[in-house]
């Protein structure tokens, strides 16, 4: 039986060359594997926190230094025929040496490496050394050798197979990591092993079929067989050569569904390799039985991009995902679970793993399977032209093949995508002239990746890029395939989201600062202002603060004090995304998905994230939760006036009378009507608002509400800055709760977007609801987890009990 021995203990870190600051001794520092240079130096107290204050620039030297990891391990002959040294992840350019013998030169963070070391191992102590070359000068040198390619940032991340955002992004710190970022082990085996196991599962009537394709590596000639077992059933086949296919039919299986559409039953699959002396190797997988396809059949308005699971069209409610820490080795399974459960709590059903980060871990995908979160994984190419020359071409083929096989069995995986924005960049960003005939990645997106998927995982859908138009139209054509919308953030007001009706929007978003606790704990600025030194270091977007201001002014005045500025920018971020989501969702089935940029952050930063780098939800989180609720009532402008759109994503029908009213801010009903609706399961109904209700007498002091079974939509005629909103009058009542405290808020007047910034009271406290609009006399109760009863009175402080009203009254 194959035996694996982890080699994670006893490592030391050494600075081997480069600009180490004077007085800093880095020779024999204890190192953790998996880990990286930064985490080792932090643990040793040799560097400050790179995320704090202005430390980023102070630590840029790390990416200019060559580093060496060393370890000694004992070994004795154990009778096995083969001994393989396996590296699951090496970041990034390194020479691997065992007992003075070079095993290999590596230069790809995104794949694993295996070396036959049976002739190199020695009885007793074995010396293992991994010598890393500094990533920044290596990338620069490769860029010179391969030729410059267009990209949006200075350092040539396209010339090295390393996480692109590791060199910095418009939300990300530049860390320039090196290290053994995934596991290292010694595998010992005899006769044969399972070198590759490809598993697919598909429903067949009431049952299901599991297909296993296994590729073997042999150490000796022997008669071999492979068996597949699941749910008490088994199938087996003899191996002729080095590969075999085994098909297992199960008589009765339950289907796997996305969250909100059904349950997520998973079946354990065991693949066993046997020889004359018994079991030699095994591989365990978990599968779910479901069908998936993307409907791109042209229709009268263009080309849809509709996800269909188990023959049911699914409106995608998604968010883009970046590495959850700029030092990814710090993200363990528990942290993945916290983040993905937050995604489910925000009513998301899909996570898109963006192409400038990493191929996400097995933990990530296993949790997506369990939670019913659909996963879309980009191949790792983002916003740049990529060389197709060697050695990158063969490295990319190796990484792609390995990760296709690794991920393809997961029922949550519904799309592999060739790249992020590169097809668009080639068409619109001046690349053609700047490339002047050089390669840019087309071979990967249109030839290599589809060929590998056809060979290794034909059941997994593929798109050459995002955005992408299936019929060959412009890649960012809103009537064909997927679209990215960035003009709003970059140049326009967010109300212009309503000018677009894409078939599917895969990226759009708006910036806002992190929570107050995260911001103030990560900066030392005194005074703290939007433009103070630490704030600028933690604002990576080009002209980011200018765009924040320009995006706020049509809706609110810019506040004079920092805390109110912070709230205004957070609220405007939430309002912008809410407006977009309400618009896109009410155009289903023409529009069948909206993926917000972005769910998470990798450090404390002003960004597009809904959850900040310290894992705290921003107001945007509540905007997602509200806009993506399974049942919603939304008021939207249409050509003929206002309309009420009732959306029902639940499996049962929703019937009743929608009460539509035009009201004064004082709460008086100025016009009212009742309209009966019958909304089918997974359906929507749109009804016009009667003319007397839709026409305001005074745009500054009137609103329209529409309500069905306690679900309410609100439409304000005027912008908050031009309205008659008064200072909020809210009474607060606190009750103890096993998880914290229940806060009942009663409005004495109209209060818009009422939100509790409870992290200011207790940094770990989280409110269950936010962005609540209350009419005069109404109340709501919000559970605040992690808030002690003695802390609860502080919730009534106006810096905690926030509303849009506070941004209007001066």
Automatic annotation (TrEMBL):
GO molecular function: hydrolase activity
Keywords: Glycosidase, Hydrolase
Residue span(s) of domain Glycoside hydrolase family 2 immunoglobulin-like beta-sandwich: 206-290
SUPFAM superfamilies with a match to the protein in the record: (Trans)glycosidases, beta-Galactosidase/glucuronidase domain, Galactose-binding domain-like
InterPro entries documented for this protein: Beta-gal/glucu_dom_sf (IPR036156), Beta-mannosidase-like_N2 (IPR054593), Beta-mannosidase_GH2 (IPR050887), Galactose-bd-like_sf (IPR008979), GH (IPR017853), Ig-like_fold (IPR013783), Ig-like_GH2 (IPR006102)
Catalytic reactions on record: Hydrolysis of terminal, non-reducing beta-D-mannose residues in beta-D-mannosides
Domain Beta-mannosidase-like galactose-binding: 28-182
EC number(s) recorded for this UniProt protein: 3.2.1.25
Keyword Oxidoreductase set for record: no
Family named by the database record: Belongs to the glycosyl hydrolase 2 family.
The protein's name: beta-mannosidase
């Amino acid at each position: 039986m194959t035996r694996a021995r982890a080699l994670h203990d006893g490592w030391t870190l050494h600075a081997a060359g480069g600009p180490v600051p004077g007085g800093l001794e880095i020779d024999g520092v204890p190192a953790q594997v998996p880990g990286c240079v930064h985490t080792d130096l932090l643990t040793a107290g040799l560097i400050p926190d790179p995320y704090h204050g202005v430390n980023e620039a102070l630590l840029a030297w790390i990416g200019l230094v060559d580093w060496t990891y060393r370890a000694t391990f004992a070994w004795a002959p154990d009778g096995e025929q083969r001994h393989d040294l396996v590296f699951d992840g090496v970041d990034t350019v390194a020479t691997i040496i065992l007992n003075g013998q070079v095993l290999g030169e590596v230069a790809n963070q995104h794949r694993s490496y295996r070396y036959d070391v049976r002739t190199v191992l020695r009885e007793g102590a074995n010396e293992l050394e991994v010598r890393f070359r500094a990533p920044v000068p290596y990338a620069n040198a490769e860029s010179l050798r391969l030729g410059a390619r267009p990209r949006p940032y200075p350092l040539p991340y396209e010339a090295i197979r390393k996480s692109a955002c590791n060199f910095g992004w418009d939300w990300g710190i530049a860390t320039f990591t090196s290290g053994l970022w995934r596991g290292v082990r010694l595998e010992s085996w005899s006769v044969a092993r399972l070198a590759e196991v490809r598993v697919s599962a598909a429903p067949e009537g009431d049952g299901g079929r599991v297909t296993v394709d296994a590729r073997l590596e042999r150490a000796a000639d022997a008669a071999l067989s492979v068996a597949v077992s699941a749910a008490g059933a088994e199938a087996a086949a003899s191996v002729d050569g080095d590969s075999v296919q085994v098909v297992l039919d199960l008589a009765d299986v339950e289907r796997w569904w996305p969250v909100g559409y059904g349950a997520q039953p998973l079946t354990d699959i065991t693949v066993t390799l046997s020889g004359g002396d018994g079991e030699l190797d095994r591989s365990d997988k978990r599968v779910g039985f479901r069908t998936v396809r993307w409907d791109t059949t042209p229709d009268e308005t263009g080309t849809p991009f509709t996800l269909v699971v188990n023959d049911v069209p699914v409106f995608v409610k998604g968010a883009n995902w970046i590495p959850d820490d700029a030092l990814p080795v710090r993200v363990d399974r528990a942290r993945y679970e916290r983040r993905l459960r937050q995604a489910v709590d925000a009513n998301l059903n899909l996570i898109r793993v963006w192409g400038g980060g990493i191929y996400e871990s097995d933990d990530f995908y296993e949790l997506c399977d369990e939670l019913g979160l659909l996963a879309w994984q980009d191949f790792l190419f983002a916003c740049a032209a990529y060389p197709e020359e060697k050695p990158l071409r063969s490295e990319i083929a190796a990484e792609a093949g390995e990760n296709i096989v690794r991920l393809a069995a997961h029922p949550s995986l519904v799309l592999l995508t060739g790249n992020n924005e590169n097809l668009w960049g080639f068409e619109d960003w001046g690349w053609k002239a700047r490339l002047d005939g050089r390669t840019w990645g087309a071979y990967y997106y249109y030839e290599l990746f589809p060929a590998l998927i056809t060979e290794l995982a034909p059941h997994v859908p593929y798109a050459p890029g995002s955005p992408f138009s299936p019929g060959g139209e412009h890649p960012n054509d809103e009537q064909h395939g997927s679209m990215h919308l960035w003009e709003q953030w970059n140049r326009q007001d967010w109300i212009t989201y309503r000018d677009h009706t894409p078939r599917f929007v895969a990226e759009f978003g708006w910036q806002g600062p992190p929570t107050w606790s995260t911001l103030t704990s990560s900066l030392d600025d005194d005074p703290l202002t939007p433009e103070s030194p630490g704030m600028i270091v933690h604002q990576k977007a080009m002209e980011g603060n200018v765009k924040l201001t320009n995006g706020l002014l049509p809706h609110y005045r810019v506040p004079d004090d920092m805390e109110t500025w912070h709230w205004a920018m957070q609220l405007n971020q939430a309002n912008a995304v809410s407006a977009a989501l309400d618009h896109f969702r009410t155009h289903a089935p023409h529009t069948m998905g909206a993926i917000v940029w972005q769910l998470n952050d990798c450090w404390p930063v002003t960004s597009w994230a809904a959850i900040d780098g310290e894992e705290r939800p921003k107001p945007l989180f509540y905007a997602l939760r509200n806009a993506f609720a399974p049942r919603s009532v939304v008021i939207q402008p249409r050509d003929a006036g206002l309309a009420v759109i009732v959306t029902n994503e639940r499996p049962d029908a929703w019937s009743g009378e929608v009460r539509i009213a035009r009201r004064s801010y004082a709460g008086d009903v100025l016009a009212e009507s009742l309209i009966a609706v019958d909304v089918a399961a997974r359906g929507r109904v749109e009804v016009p608002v009667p003319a007397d209700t839709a026409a305001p007498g005074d745009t500054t002091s009137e609103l329209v509400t529409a309500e069905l079974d306690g679900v309410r939509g609100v439409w304000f005629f005027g912008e908050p800055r031009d309205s008659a909103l008064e200072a909020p009058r809210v009474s607060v009542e606190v009750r103890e709760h096993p998880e914290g405290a229940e806060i009942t808020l009663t409005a004495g007047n109209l209060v818009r977007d009422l939100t509790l910034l409870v992290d200011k009271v207790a940094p770990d406290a989280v409110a269950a609801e936010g962005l609540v609009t209350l009419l005069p006399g109404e109340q709501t109760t919000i559970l605040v987890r992690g808030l002690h009863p003695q802390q609860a009175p502080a919730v009534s402080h106006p810096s905690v009990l926030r509303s849009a009203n506070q941004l209007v009254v001066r």
